[in-house]
Amino acid sequence: MGERTLRKRLNPNLSALIIRPAIIGGALSEPYPGWTDTISAAGGLSVVGGIGIVNFIHGYEDNIADLIPVDLVSNMIIVGTAV
């Protein structure tokens, strides 16, 4: 709905960027690998895995984890708005 509203109301002289990442997880490399600022959602899973509370998560090899590192998302936003 938000994208439709934006499309209807967007001034033709302006550009817009819509970024819809899946689940944002810990950092890949910046500011350091595994960095997270919250222990909710994917951040919590990263923390308990990183400190050794959880050693494995049962799953199936056909399942896809829709996680994207926070530093990749922030870099994508910076690059996308610089154009």
What is the element layout, followed by pairings?
Layout: H1 2-9, E1 23-25, H2 41-50, E2 67-69, H3 70-82
Give a description of the structure.
By secondary structure, the chain is mainly α. The protein has a domain at 22-57 and 64-83. The chain is 37% helix and 7% strand. The chain has helices at residues 2-9, 41-50, 70-82, and strands at residues 23-25, 67-69. A two-stranded parallel sheet has the order 1-2. Helix 2 links the parallel strand 1 and strand 2 (67-69). The longest helix has 13 residues, at 70-82. The mean pLDDT is 85.
Give a brief outline of the structure.
The protein has 83 residues and is mainly alpha-helical.
Structural class designation: mainly alpha
Say how many strands there are. Answer: 2
- General form: elongated
Q: Low-confidence segments, ≥5 residues, pLDDT <50?
A: none
Radius of gyration: 17 Å
Helix content: 25-40%
Provide the descriptors you would attach to this structure in a database record.
83 residues; mainly alpha; two-stranded parallel ribbon
